[in-house]
Amino acid sequence: MRMLVALLVVAAWSIPSFAVAQEKKFQPPEVKKIQIGFKTFGGDDDQTAFKVGLWTPIYVDIFGGTDGVMPKPGTVPPYLKITAEDSEDVGTEITVPVNVEPMKTRTFIGYIKTGRIGNLRDQVTVNLYINDRSIGRPSTEQAFTLQVDQHLYVTLGSRMADVHRAVRNIDRQREKGKPVQDEILRPFETTSFRNAVFENQVPRLPERWFGYNSIDMMILGTENRKFLTDLNLEPDRLSAIATWVRRGGRLVVPIAPANQDVVTALLSNAVWQPPIPVVPPAGEKPIKLDDLAGLATWGNVQAEPFIHKDPKDPRFVLPIRVAPLEPPRVRSNDWEPGGYNTDKPGAVPLYAHVRYGLGRITYIAISLEDTSFFQWKGKQEFLENTLKKLAPTTPANVAEQGNIRFGHDIPNDITTDLVNQLDEFDVRIIEFGYVALFIVLYILVVGPLDFVLLKYVFKRLEWTWITFPAVVLAVSVIAYFAAYALKGRDLKINKVDLIDFDMRTDVDAKGKPKTVRAYGASFFTILSPRIQNYTVGMEANPLFWGEEVKKVKHEGRDVDEVMSVDLLSWLGRPSGGPHDMGRGGGAGGFFRRPYAYRDDASGLEGVPIPVWTTKAFTASWERPVAKPPFDADLYYHVKDPQNRQIKLSGKLDNHLGVDLTDVWLVYDQRCYPIAGGLKTARAGSEPKKLELTQTSAKDLDRKWADMTDVPDAAVEARNVQFRPIGPIKHLVFHERTDVSNVVRNHLFRPLDLGWRVDKAPLGETNPRTREAILFARVRFVSGSAEALTSDATNPLPTRLWLGDLPNSGRPRPGLDGILNQDTFIRVILPVRPADE
Fold it and tell me: Of 18, 483, 547, 601, whose CB neighbour count within 10 A is largest?
């Protein structure tokens, strides 16, 4: 009996202990950490930074728990829902599918675009959904939000602390002849105009090109061989870098000679389409030089010669190993080498620029982490001068200010001017005096008049329970119908397309394009005549560049191929201080539900637009073009035996589906008008013969951009105030048109090709890239949105979808309302030397 009692007591104690043990063993899934942007210098790896108003990666660490976070039959697959507020305080949602093994932790990368500087916990939320039910989430780690006006440079592969120091010192005031002493790596500061971040883990690199949307310059470190090898095995991550460069990014590659074979393999990967025109050769032995005077001269370092002293005996100088940049049989027009130590034959370049798509790649023949570079006393001055030279230009007053103040309004912004133009509709604005008069009359009717009539005429004050709501209802109905009579019932759309054709990156031995790529950027605003949630998509139209619409198979039948844009998002005004991208106050409202991005961010669903309110959007895309849209044979002149001052001559034939007006050729820092425009060859027009002389050239400055001096350009009769010509012409060559360096271009720096408009050197002995840029526009059109969008005779470059997302299996919904359309094109054309 006593034994039985003892067993019962032991069992009573052991059952709870066993339950506790079982409870301890079970671990639920959990969101461990949330980080937004790239890692910062001077702090721990949990601190990140990003720019407001531009896309950036968001990293979410998920612990799978005991059962894992995995799809199960018959249930909704698990996913992350990431919400960020736009510039009008309305939430945007994008989902990321997740799959985590039991007791494992995985990092998932999403992409967000926030609308204003402020508390991230209020703007960005991340929820993990399992079986369509949300589980708890942590707060985000510390992230520094930068204004869209600031510069952000990223180093990939290593931290490169020297780059961070140089970036912080570029705009700092210093005593003449004395470098800034800043040997301590200071913490990240949001007030600095220029900022540096880094990423040294390949799995954390974005898999989509717009993950680098907020990056102004990228530096690829090449000392870490494993990083380069792993990156070469990740086509999606490498393709994101390649696409970012093609679309206007600036990539700097300082090459470690010991890893040149891996660097060459990386830059020759098939994801670079078209191929990079010049890639440093693999298999070549490093070159040994006693000094790198050419590199020091390029970096404007005069006081400290670039030599490598023997650490054991400083009296002796050791040779410096540099990477050979020049491959065999390179064509001089494909790159711009420099930094030669001597003018003697056989001298090697120490740096080189290669134009790739709309962007640029710069090679440096030595690693920025090399021992010889590290011990060079002029390294910091070299980095400061070189990074400033390679980065996009900054406003003239940055050096004077040294930093920017949080909440300070950003002046003179091109995108703000463009959005203001997109908001110009032919809607009658009622003057405030009439509105005030209407309010006064309403107060008189609902107050004194109602009282007088009921007390002295009808002598029934209790009737106010009927007359008061009746008056309110009647006045509301009158106001409603009066507003419709004045503003109309039509949906209205203002739309701008900028199309770039790259005919220079991939050319044959004769300078003829082997492949052509088209790059599109669209800006449009929708004016809604009613309260409505809109699904918004867009597709590129091959009819515009002279191709037929291809047929694809869908469910066993042939349908037209739909070429959806690859990024579509809201567009804000980059001015205004704390609400950096806002309109001067949140328009979100309590009842404004979030709207959703398509999973790949190529479209939007459920965008709320209140009655008679506008919302602006932007889209971008890239496509290979089967046939060149232009037949060009251009050649430049060096000699001038007849003193005719001819700069450029040849012929140009337009094979687009539309005529072009306001046509210019930009070459040698000047712009040349093409009289009469360019008619399309589809209508039987002959090629245009060109002979552009110095006397016909115009300065590529603000005067040209503001359309005050445009000979032979057709001036359309516009029935609306919508006129985006000025902002667009500022945008496309900003670094050249802003001669006073005061106008800012925050959101669309990659679209600025002003840096490509070179001045020809006095002598023609040095290789340089020769190209001309054609700028033109298509005649403005206005009318029925559906009629203009479906017109195959005068095709638009893009077709807007409202009510559905582009899909080859479904027809495009018809567009109601009125469309105002402006189209601009740029064509990068190769130029060869004349037979002189």
Answer: 601
**Tokens linked to 524:** 């449009």
Q: For residue 81, give the amino acid letter.
A: K
- Flag whether pLDDT at 810 surpasses 90: no
C-beta of residue 522 within 8 angstroms of C-beta of residue 748: no
Which phi and psi (to 5°) does residue 663 adopt? -95, 135
Residue type, 765: T
DSSP secondary structure code for residue 408 in this structure: P
The radius of gyration of the chain from alpha carbons, rounded to an integer in Å, stands at 31
Q: Is the model's pLDDT at 813 over the cut of 70?
A: yes
| Percent of the chain clearing pLDDT 90 (strictly above) | 51
Contacts of residue 784, defined as CB under 8 A and 6 or more positions apart, other chains included, come to 818, 819
Cα–Cα dist 731/747, whole Å? 10
Q: Which two tokens stand for residue 724?
A: 């985006």
Identify the helix (H) or strand (E) that includes residue 262.
Answer: helix 260-267
Structure-token match 């070179």, residue found: 758
Amino acid of residue 281: P
Taking alpha carbons only, the member of 142, 130, 174, 132 closest to residue 33 is 142
- At which residue do the structure tokens 């980095």 appear? 383
| Helical residues (DSSP H) of 464-549, grouped into ranges | 464-487
Q: Read off the pTM.
A: 0.90
**Residue 446, SS3 per DSSP:** helix
Can you list the positions of beta strands (E) in 169-306?
194-199, 217-220, 250-254, 287-289
Residues 6+ apart with CB under 8 A from 514: 274, 506, 507, 508
In this structure, are residues 499 and 540 in contact, taking their beta carbons and an 8 Å threshold?
no
Is 372 strand, coil or helix? Answer: helix
Helices (H), 448-502: 450-452, 464-487
User: What does the mean pLDDT of the chain come to?
Assistant: 85
Query: Across the beta sheet with 151-156, what order do the strands follow?
Result: 143-146, 48-51, 38-40, 194-199, 151-156, 217-220, 250-254, 359-364, 351-356, 336-338
Check whether the bond before 274 is cis (ω within 30° of 0): yes
Beta strands in 307-389 (DSSP E): 308-309, 317-318, 320-322, 336-338, 351-356, 359-364
CB 775 within 8 A of CB 673: no
- Amino acid letter, residue 188: F
Cβ neighbours for 552, distance < 8 A, ≥ 6 positions apart: 558, 559, 560, 561, 808
Residue 69 contacts by C-beta under 8 Å, 6 or more apart in sequence? Answer: 29, 62, 78, 98, 99, 100, 128, 130
Name the β-bridge partners of 82. 94, 126
Query: How many Å apart are CA 502 and CA 356, to the nearest integer?
Result: 9
pLDDT tens digits, residue range 78-124?
A: 999 999 999 888 999 999 999 999 999 999 999 999 987 766 766 78
Q: Which residue has the tokens 């479906």?
A: 790
Handedness of CA 748, 750, 753, 755 (dihedral sign): positive
> CA 406 from chain center: how many Å?
23
Contacts of 748 (CB under 8 A, 6+ apart): 414, 415, 521, 731
- Number of other residues whose CB lies within 10 A of the CB of residue 574: 26
Q: Are 348 and 322 in contact (CB under 8 A)?
A: yes
- Distance (Å, whole) CA 243 – CA 229: 19
187 or 147, which is more confident:
147
3-state class (DSSP) for residue 424: coil
CA dist 137 and 80 (Å) reads 11
* Residue 448: Cβ-neighbour burial (10 angstroms; 0-12, 13-18, 19+): exposed
Using DSSP's 3-state secondary structure scheme, residue 709 falls into coil
Query: Which residue, among 30, 63, 61, 62, has the nearest Cα to 45 in the 3D structure?
Result: 61
DSSP bridge partners of 379:
none
* Chain segment 223-280, per-residue pLDDT in tens: 999 999 999 999 999 999 999 999 999 999 999 999 999 999 999 999 999 999 999 9
Tell me the mean pLDDT in the region 521-535.
94
| Separation of first and last alpha carbons in the chain | 120
